[in-house]
From TrEMBL:
UniProt-recorded name of the protein: GPI inositol-deacylase
Ranges that cross the membrane: 144-165, 812-831, 914-933, 980-1008, 1029-1055, 1075-1092, 1104-1125
Organism of origin: Venustampulla echinocandica
Record's compositionally biased regions (Polar residues): 57-67
Ranges for domain GPI inositol-deacylase PGAP1-like alpha/beta: 220-463
Subcellular location: Endoplasmic reticulum membrane
Amino acid sequence: MRRRSTGSATEEEGDDSIPESYEVVNLALPLERAEGRSRIDRSNSNQGPGKLEPAARQSNTQNTNTSREPEWRNSIDKRPSPARSRLLSNTSWKLAPESRHGQLDKTRSAEPPLINMPPEEAMAVDKMPDVRQHGRRSRFRSPWAISLLTLLVAALGLFSLGSIIHSFTNRQLDTKGCRMSYMRPSFAKLSDFDTEHTRFASKYSVYLYREGMVDEDTKVKGVPVLFIPGNAGSYKQVRPIAAEGANYFHDVLRHDSAAIEAGARNLDFFTVDFNEDITAFHGQTMLDQAEYLNEAVAYILSMYHDPRRSERDPDLPDPTSVIILGHSMGGIVARTMLIMPNYQANSINTIVTMSAPHARPPVSFDADIVRTYREINDYWRQAYSQKWANNNPLWHVTLISIAGGGLDTVVPSDYANLESLVPETHGFTVFTSSVPNVWTSMDHQAILWCDQFRKVVVRSLYEVIDVNRPAQTKPRADRMRIFKKWYLTGMESIAEKTLPHKEPTTLLTLEENSFAQGERLVLRNFGQSRRPRAHLLPIPPQGTPGGKRFTLLTDQKLDKPGESGKLEVLFCSVFPLHPGQSATLFSMNMDFSGDSLGSTRLACKNAASDVIALPASTRTTKMPFYLDEEEELLPFSYLQYDLEDIQDHQFVALVDKAVNPSSGWVVAEFSDNVQSHRVRSLSLRRLLAFGMKIKLPPNRPMVAEVKIPALHSSLLAYNLEMGNQVCGDETELFTPLLRQYISDPYESKYFVNVKQANINLHGVSPFMPPQLKWKAVQDGLSLQFWTDPTCNSSIKISLKIDIPGSLGKLYMRYRTVFAAFPLLVVALVLRKQFRIYDETGIFMSFSESLDLCLRQSLPLVLAALTCLSVSFAQASSDPPRPASSGFWGWRGNATETQVDFTKNDLLVGSQDPFFWFMVPLIGVVCVGVCVMVNFASLAIIHVSSIVYGWLSTKPGWLRYDDKRRSSSPAFAPSSPRRRLLTTAILLFLVSTLIPYQFAYLVACLVQIATCTRALRFAREARSNANYNFYNYAHSIFILMLWILPINLPILVVWVHNLAVHWLTPFSSHHNVLSIMPFIILVETLTSGKMVPRVTSRLRHLTSVLFFFLAMYAAVYGVTYAYMLHYLVNFAAAWLVALHSSTSSWTFAGISHIFDPETSENTRKRGKTP
């Protein structure tokens, strides 16, 4: 391997080599200067590389050929700079005996040429003064220089990034609709849960919540509920939900004898103080919390066995399980508890999480958290894949994931999806905008204190508990049915109707003329007959092509049996007359026959339990919700049944129970599914080009639904416009109401009084794992319209893709790409720099190398990655392959399919070839960001260099010689012994106390100092060698700078642990080999030593290494970002090996390092006397 022997940044003084890609090709000649004069030493052209000319030969040729040196060059060389008097660390300085002040002998060792030239070529170059002068200007090109191409690409990238951020903050925004909650909190610490029970007692603690003026007794008396805060969360975040739980039981449930008999008791809310631990970035912290929580659950359950701490009824069974509420990363910790060795079987069977990223980690900067996520998710998938319940340890566990939606800018709500983890029989994912009577998105913290949402959570928990069972909850199937009732709209395919399972409770006696004609019944007011009256609508027979369904919409609340409102809806069948049966079989008897002789008796079921709440839509409503200062809006009541659900009945009875005329309306009808359901099979490209137009005819049904299977991506947003609803002479009953929804996951959004709507969804998202059960066709986006059927006018609807609004959807899905994709650009730039340097001896600046990459390698790489991304997207849409049956079919089931849950982890994670442009777009944006970061670092280094120059300059009244002696040289390297000891101490601390991320931060700061001194040196001694070293040091700093964000989160976790006096070292971040190459490389650069050129075939290894780094950053960087540190660390090790190749290590040299006198004398001889 041929390498250039180099010792410091100044060894290559006078190197004029220019790469062939430059405008002027100027072959390098060794230059020498003494007392401001320079010349070309033609005698060196015959020497081989690495041979130094003796100092004695220099004295005969030092005053030759100075006329061709440019005037500005001579002026620079002649100025008496004290820093320039000590430029060369390998110069043989000789003191003249007669000199009083130690004048320097004008001798120095010659330097080998970077490129060997015959004498005639040197003479030819010597005859080209103009070309040489132009070459020098190219050599001293400013690092601030930027080509037009780089400027245009960077401007385009930064403009795209600015457009994305502007769209994210200003377009397609969900409206905030949470009402404020209030509480009177108090907390009782469980002091007895100490180090005898857990090793984390000094770091964590558990509290019992009590609501002031409601329940201030610290004894447990109900059902235990454990709240787990999220990343940097506080134990006090349980206050809103716990306060609502205490107040609801105190004000309502304790007076409800039926609820008490059914097993309802007070909820004892426990909460954990994690000292605001940062769990999103550190897997070990998450495991520590899970271990502590399992021990806390065991202690909490033991409290109910202790009569001194419990006031429970002794006849009730002792609790054996705890309900878990988890916020954010607390939900992931809750799932982690079930895979820990200290988990007590069946101690957890109900988990409700809020804004928890179940599908994948928020960031992949830590290897532990990526591995922990994989172990958790694999465990849950394997458990639910078991055929028999006895083999499934999670058979009795229900998991409900609630996402905040578009307002949550901390965790992407797409990550809350459970479709890849839990079957529908054991859990589901729902958005807060879908929850009845909530109907609004929420940010990451508001989901805990939003008043209308906390009421739903508390009521659902009170309905699933049953203190008569040891598990303290109802069976799993009942729990799932209750959660679906409280959290889903009721219009989903998995929503269960209660009407078919009921028994008739009402006997209805009517006149024979009470039957309505046709399939639609409309009432515009109530109480017109001033007495209760029933209106019958006959149920049509089955057999209609496409099927029929019954729909009812009213602005009144539907009465349950025994209530005295305005409207009650019954589904009835003819009841034969048998004396004495009416009093024994029915709890309610409604006789509207009056004095008529003929009457009809009907056995009826009340439909109020299946009512669906819809936001009121009138001319005065603007939002589905109302705020604190606004008047309360009563929702609409909606019923929807397929004909199969009501086939056992003959009539629908609408009972108007008002005795005085009053306002209100109701519309009930049977409609054909063919007329009310439409499927528009248009592609995204057609929608992008032409949009979509729909026209609702005048004789339309009340509810119309349009399904667009192609619209399933979360990266696109749409604008919907709806024409006016013209009703003519009659007053309209309600204004158009729109519901947009998807089924995977369950997300619905409502738009009242709709004229224009912003449509965006959380459907198919980048990097998300596939579903447990593969679907050939996505259901896509559905639009459901409620319009007044009495208005005989058509309504026009148009839907278009909102391109500016869609840009903002890229932010939450691709923000982590900036931790990896810029390394693609940086690695390619460094690869180009080293290739040019090994070929010509010029280490060009970062900007120049980036310009060359934009002209050559970067477009080709982005094109190849684009093709790869399209290939990945097509493979993602393919059905899963059958599982391997093993050797000769002896293992496994060939009919089973094996789902690859990691197939969307690569590159940009796209699952649709339509988004092929994401790779070029991200590449251009990252180029702009890299240019911006490069100039920002240049600014910091230049400012630091100026400050460093001020601090190192002495006053002018000092003697010149004293000034020269006292001025700090550009590089004043410490002794090898000091550097070795510093490195050894730092590595020892890494192996014992501090994580290697701290040492990496120190290395980055030292590299800034190295770049600062290198820039000052290059400014004062304008030569290729100095600028080579500065460009090299600067590029290494840029590379380290892009790795810094990957290491900072772990460092923050370590500092936080120190702040809470938790001094236990991390078990996973003390690998010395993970930081040693960085430390040695940075320490080597502090001595001003330039990396040697590699002229043998090994130079290709450097190119391959950086190219592999670039490809890994692009393909795997987002999912496995922590690996980028190790790859760059390996690159640093290679550079250290290159630096070490020019050093001769001997035992004598090593012993001199530890000899203070020898080391000090050697260091002094290397400096100016």
